[in-house]
DNA sequence: CCGCAACTGACAAATGCTGTCAGTTGATGT
DNA sequence: ACATCAACTGACAGCATTTGTCAGTTGCGG
């Protein structure tokens, strides 16, 4: 096995986010432990955020490592346009992420002449209100963690309520953001407009996927109704 | 200089899209020509689309090569959301690009458990009409190439006209796409709604950036007017 | 058919990588 | 305070890879 191959193997191994011991990796790759230590040196030297702790093991800090990749011009354009839109249409967390990603890409791509400095894309503010945007990072991480949320919601007819929901998906409709949930009180799917959520906090209670209450079930249900706007039937006014 | 560093140097050198001779690269990196040939072998073997032609030189086929990179979870989310929106809001060329880019990312990112298979993003059609979308690839490549376009335009009061324009920027307003141009006939900036362009063809005539007629000049002019919608004053109804 | 520059093969020399060994360091638990 | 664990470090001999030199071949364009 070539050294360079071994280095990328190590990245793949460490990428699962769990702790790894140098000796295990050494056994798996059939080299000595010393070599693994040296390999980690090399990887860290080339900027890969691996952290080793004495007595504990190794861990990859950032969750994803992108291997070398070739992009076509169209793909690069799509990427830049997408990041420009996200920077306009999403919350500050994603906004910051899209800007830093664009910067990373530019760093490698615009140094030379083939790639235009100016992409010829303009994106102008088209999210009408940014009310409720501060909830979005919380909502996204709750979706990922499958954690129930406690939300205070003001319906479109100005009736407020507090609910415990299982967040499943946050959706973008061009002007507004919604979050689709399984609502524990109503025992059904409900979609909430994020700009009508006045308060939103993690409950500390985690849920498991249950048939009939999953995102897949919601999407299937909606699909079978063949309405133009998928969540019209469950929309919380 | 380490071998691996030299390999990425070579990529950077070749990335400019111009022809390079092995002997020049060898001189620049202070190694022998033979070593450079071997390095190209290595690069090609790891899937980098470099082409060498006898008697000519070396060339990178795809315009952009993305070196290894670390993305945070937020950046990955922004990327997926952006690609989902582009797939909904742009023409088929960009749509295809966004899909293939998403696939490339998924291939490396969802293999292990850290990254969710389902991102919890839904994006629903929010471009009202896809009329005129077929012109967009042409428009984008004309912007890049600085090639004048001949367009047939139907104004909002149903007056049609044919114009020669210098395309500068295509902009997205959440519902509609526009292209901002320097209009040769009017001798001023004009923005056209893409869904009102009935015909659009490259003229074969290329233009150079001239002070007063560039995108920068347009943006500056618009900025100084402090209107909410930058191109209100030059909008072609 | 000549010049160019990409290519290829062979081999010795230089360089870098690896394993072994013998330690140190810092965190954690008893 | 002590032991344990596992990351880390330095040194050195032996081995593997990489490199340069040299002497060719191949394919393209003039």
TrEMBL record, chains A, B:
Stored PROSITE patterns: WYL (PS52050)
Q: List each copy of the WYL domain by range.
A: 135-201
By its UniProt entry, which Pfam families does this protein fall under? HTH_11, WYL
Q: Which residues form the Helix-turn-helix type domain?
A: 6-58
Q: Which InterPro entries match?
A: CBASS_pafABC_assoc_protein, HTH_11, WH-like_DNA-bd_sf, WH_DNA-bd_sf, WYL_dom
Entry superkingdom: Bacteria
User: What keywords tag this UniProt record?
Assistant: DNA-binding
Which molecular function GO terms apply here? DNA binding
Protein name (Swiss-Prot/TrEMBL): Putative DNA-binding transcriptional regulator YafY
What organism is listed for this UniProt entry?
Sulfitobacter undariae
């Amino acid at each position: 096995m070539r050294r360079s191959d071994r280095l990328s193997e190590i990245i793949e191994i460490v990428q699962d986010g769990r702790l790894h011991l140098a000796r295990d990796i050494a056994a798996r790759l059939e080299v000595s432990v010393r070599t693994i230590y040296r390999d980690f040196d090399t990887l860290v030297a080339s900027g890969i955020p691996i952290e080793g702790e004495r007595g504990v093991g190794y861990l990859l800090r950032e969750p994803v490592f992108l291997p070398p990749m070739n992009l076509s011009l169209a793909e690069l354009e799509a990427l830049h346009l997408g990041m420009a839109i996200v920077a306009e249409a999403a919350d500050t967390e994603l906004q910051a992420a899209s800007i830093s990603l664009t910067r990373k890409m530019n760093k490698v791509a615009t140094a030379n002449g083939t790639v235009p400095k100016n992409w010829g894309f303009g994106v102008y503010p088209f999210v009408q209100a940014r009310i409720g945007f501060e909830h979005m990072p919380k909502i996204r991480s709750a979706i990922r963690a499958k954690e129930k949320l406690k939300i205070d919601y003001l319906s479109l007819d100005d009736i407020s309520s507090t609910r415990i929901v299982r967040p499943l998906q946050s959706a973008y409709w061009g002007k507004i953001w919604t979050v689709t949930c399984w609502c524990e009180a109503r025992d059904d799917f409900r979609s909430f407009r994020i700009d009508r959520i006045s308060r939103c906090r993690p409950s500390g209670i985690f849920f498991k996927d249950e048939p009939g209450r999953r995102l897949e079930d919601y999407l299937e249900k909606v699909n079978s109704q063949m309405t133009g706007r998928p969540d019209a039937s469950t929309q919380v006014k």
